[in-house]
Amino acid sequence: GQNIDQPTEMTATEGAIVQINCTYQTSGFNGLFWYQQHAGEAPTFLSYNVLDGLEEKGRFSSFLSRSKGYSYLLLKELQMKDSASYLCVGLKAAGNKLTFGGGTRVLVKP
Amino acid sequence: EPEVTQTPSHQVTQMGQEVILRCVPISNHLYFYWYRQILGQKVEFLVSFYNNEISEKSEIFDDQFSVERPDGSNFTLKIRSTKLEDSAMYFCASSKEDPRANSPLHFGNGTRLTVT
Questions:
Q1: A101 Cβ partners below 8 Å, 6+ apart?
Q2: What is the tens place of the pLDDT at every residue in B104-116?
């Protein structure tokens, strides 16, 4: 199977840091995407990791460990507009199909 | 910034009717996709399309579904005889290259299909 697991919901305070963990079955995936999805809207691309290590993009960073089947998305200096679902998305090694996790709903409180 | 556009934003249809969901991918993109999201559930892959043919499809994408790129700009999803369980948000997406080349998918805002 190609399960992707992430927590359902997290709450954090404006200005704080939140780390969203994602685990996946290592066989069959070529890379990991993170997407942001506001309620009722399209997923928007945040990051892509294909090699182990940390990718930093402004307030958002993403980490991948392929041997452990583990990734995380780090959101720093949280803003109210960061309240959204964050989707961990695996890319199949063969083909170009994306497999989505259930998403982690992050609620940023003042 | 160029974006994927989808029409209509909402579609209500009766069970058994045919629907066509329309998408205009980003103009220089070569790979096209349909995904769907049933309310409260995960986004699910339906089909990918490249070089004027289906490159991959899921088990959801049965004989009731078809895709077409009728001209140089549109990409459509047809559901021949809709069922209640087809009610979902349907997202069109495109990517410039194969996503394995670090070419992310860009999603449209979706068409919410309600089958009554």
A1: A4, A5, A6, A22, A24, A87, A88, A89, A90, B42
A2: 999 999 999 999 9
